[in-house]
C-alpha cells in the first residue's frame, strides 16, 4: 500500500532531524547527506517566488550556508522543517530586500529621458531595429555568442547550456556576465 | 552547489546544541536580579519599602511588571532560534501584560492628575539610575542571544528591552520615594523608551548572522 502524503512528509522530517542531530555530533557524512537532501527541497520551495534561475541559485546557496551557521540552534526534539523554513523565509526576505534596493538605485526616472534619451535607448536612427545589438554580438567570440544567445535570447537555463556546450554551470554564468558587461560598455544594456 | 556542500561538510565540527530557553533565561534573570539588588543597595532602598506592600495598586503594579519581565525575557530567548521553538504565546503574553500595565499606569495618572511644573521637567537622578539599571543587563542579554540565529531580530530586541525595562522599572520604584504618577511616567518610563530604542538600534548589529 502506498504511503500517504502526510506519512511521507513525517518520515522526511524525521530523517532530516536524525541527520541534523548526527551532524551536530560531528558526523560529516550525515551532514553531507542532509545538505544534499535539502538542496532540491529548498529549490522547490523558493523557485516559484523568484524571477530567475540565478536568484534561485543564490538563495539556495545562502540557505545552505545559514543552515551551517545555525546548526547549534536546532534541537532534535523539535521538527526540522519549521526550523528550516524559517531560515528560508528569512534569507528570501534578505535577498529580495537587497534586490529591490539595487533596482531602486539603478532605476532611471522617466523625466530624465527626454533630454538624455539617446543615452538610454538605442540610437534614434536605428529605432525599431536591432542593428547595434547584432553588431555588438557579432564582435563576440563564437562560443560567447552562442552561450549568450542560448541563455538570454532562447531561454535555456545555465545548466542546460552547460550540458549542451560541455562547460561547467559557473563557466556559463561567468561567460554571460562578461558578455553583458561588454554590451553595457558598448552602450547597450542587456 | 556540490562544491559548497563538500566544503561545508569538510568544515563541520561537533557543536553543542543551545540549551532550553527557560534555562538560559533563568541564568540571565538571576544575574540581572543580583546586579539590580547590588545597584539598588548602593543607591539605597527607599525608607518606606515595607509600607509599599500595603498598597494593593502598588502590589498589582509590581506583579504585572515582574510577570512582564519574565514573559518577555522568555520570549527573547525563544526568538533567538530560527523558528522561535514554534511558540507564539510568550510574545502575545508580553504584549498583553504591557497593555495591562499601561492601563494601570494610565488610570493612576488619571486618578491623581498633577499639573506639569518646571520641577517635573528638569534632569532628575532617576534618569541616571535608569541607565545604571539598563545598560549591563541589556548588554548581557544581547551577548547571550547572539549565540543563536534569530530570524526576527527586531522582535527579539523589543522583547529584551521590555524585559530589562520592567526589571529596571521595579528597581526604580524600590529606590525612588516619589510615587506621583507624572514623575513615574517622565522619569521611570520615558528614559527606558528612549534608551531602549537607541540600544535596540545598536544591538541589531550584534544579531546579524
Q: What's the quick description here?
A:
With 190 residues, chain A is an all-alpha fold. Helices cover 72% and strands 0% of the residues of chain A. Chain A has 2 domains: 5-105, RNA polymerase sigma factor, region 2, helix turn helix motif (Rna Polymerase Sigma Factor, Chain: A, Orthogonal Bundle), CATH 1.10.1740.10; 118-185, Winged helix-like DNA-binding domain superfamily/Winged helix DNA-binding domain (Arc Repressor Mutant, subunit A).
Give the helix/strand layout:
The complex is a heterodimer of chains A (190) and B (209).
Chain A: H1 5-24, H2 28-46, H3 53-70, H4 80-106, H5 113-120, H6 131-138, H7 142-153, H8 158-165, H9 169-185
Chain B: H1 2-11, H2 21-43, H3 56-78, H4 89-111, H5 125-145, H6 153-175, H7 181-203
Helix pairs in contact in B: 2-3, 2-5, 2-6, 3-4, 3-6, 5-6, 5-7, 6-7
What does it look like?
The complex is a heterodimer of chains A (190) and B (209). In chain A, 72% of the residues lie in helices and 0% in strands. Chain A has 190 residues and is mainly α. Chain A folds into two domains: 101 residues, Orthogonal Bundle (Rna Polymerase Sigma Factor, Chain: A), CATH 1.10.1740.10; 68 residues, Arc Repressor Mutant, subunit A, CATH 1.10.10.10. In chain A, helix 1 crosses helix 2. The longest helix of chain A is centred in the middle third of the chain and has 27 residues. Chain A is elongated, with a radius of gyration of 22 Å. The mean pLDDT of chain A is 81. With 209 residues, chain B is an all-alpha fold. Chain B has one domain. In chain B, helix 2 runs antiparallel to helix 5 and helix 5 runs parallel beside helix 7. The mean pLDDT of chain B is 87. Classes of the chains: A mainly alpha (190), B mainly alpha (209). The interface between A and B is medium-sized, with 35 and 28 residues.
